[in-house]
């Protein structure tokens, strides 16, 4: 997830996939931003802009 432009790691619990969508059961709120690209370059504490 991304908090104030900084990458933060958090455990989440995944539910079923439906096509291109993945259900999140816990660990993430609907209004929180998550990284979905360039994940191989991402690390805890990295500055992120979007």
3D architecture notes:
This protein has 50 residues and is mainly β. The chain has one domain. The chain has no helices and 4 strands. It has strands at residues 2-3, 6-7, 13-18, 21-26. A hairpin with a 2-residue loop joins strand 1 and strand 2 (6-7).
Which percent range fits the helix content?
Answer: under 10%
Described by strand count, sense and barrel closure, the largest sheet is: 2 strands, antiparallel
The domain tally reads 1
Taking strands numbered 1, 2, ... along the chain, how are they ordered across the largest sheet?
A: 1-2
Number of distinct helices:
0
What's the overall geometry? globular
Poorly predicted regions are none
Report strand %: 25-35%
- Beginning-to-end CA distance, first to last residue: 12 Å
Give the H and E element order. EEEE
Mean pLDDT: 92
Tell me the structural class. Answer: mainly beta
Gyration radius from CA atoms, angstroms: 12 Å
Number of strands: 4
Short description:
The protein is mainly beta and about 50 residues long. It has strands spanning about 1-5, 5, 15-20, 20-25.
Draw up the topology in text.
Blueprint: E1 2-3, E2 6-7, E3 13-18, E4 21-26
Antiparallel strand pairs: 1-2, 3-4
Essential attributes:
mainly beta; two-stranded antiparallel sheet; globular
């Amino acid at each position: 997830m991304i908090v104030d432009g900084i990458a933060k790691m958090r455990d989440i619990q995944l539910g079923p996939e439906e096509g291109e969508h993945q259900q999140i059961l816990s660990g993430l709120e609907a209004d929180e931003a998550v990284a979905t690209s360039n994940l191989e370059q991402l690390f805890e504490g990295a500055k992120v802009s979007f």
